[in-house]
Amino acid sequence: xxxxxxxxxxxxxxxxxxxxxxxxxxxxxxxxxxxxxxxxxxxxxxxxxxxxxxxxxxxxxxxxxxxxxxxxxxxxxxxxxxxxxxxxxxxxxxxxxxxxxxxxxxxxxxxxxxxxxxxxxxxxxxxxxxxxxxxxxxxxxxxxxxxxxxxxxxxxxxxxx
Length: 161
Description:
The chain is α/β, with parallel strands linked by helices. It is 24% helix and 20% strand. The chain has one domain (2-154): 3-Layer(aba) Sandwich (Alpha/beta knot), CATH 3.40.1280. β1 (2-8), α1 (13-25) and β2 form a beta-alpha-beta unit. The two termini are 17 Å apart.
């Protein structure tokens, strides 16, 4: 199993950092940042995201979603994480062998035009009166769901294998 975590137009260095940490913890392949590359140069440099960002061996930048799709070349299933009417619950989704987990920015999520370019949309069930979860929390939940049936011994460098 290979998966990439794709962040589209995130605004918070703290969220990027928390997601990078979860990406590494769950054995992710590429951490992909989409948006103007200068936008990712938070004050304080990459260490602003997290001390662990230096451990992300495969960090990619794409200016826009279409450039990302061109790179992807149908090698991965593109899975949008968004609150949407036709979304499958993240806990019930049968995650494919190779996939991109795509998360949108903290304020607006993923644009409809991006969701339409994805193969599937999943959502996290919520039971309270809040509009949505924090994007870093959402990423961690989805990455857990993606990996929950994965044998720990199969994860490269797994701490608990």
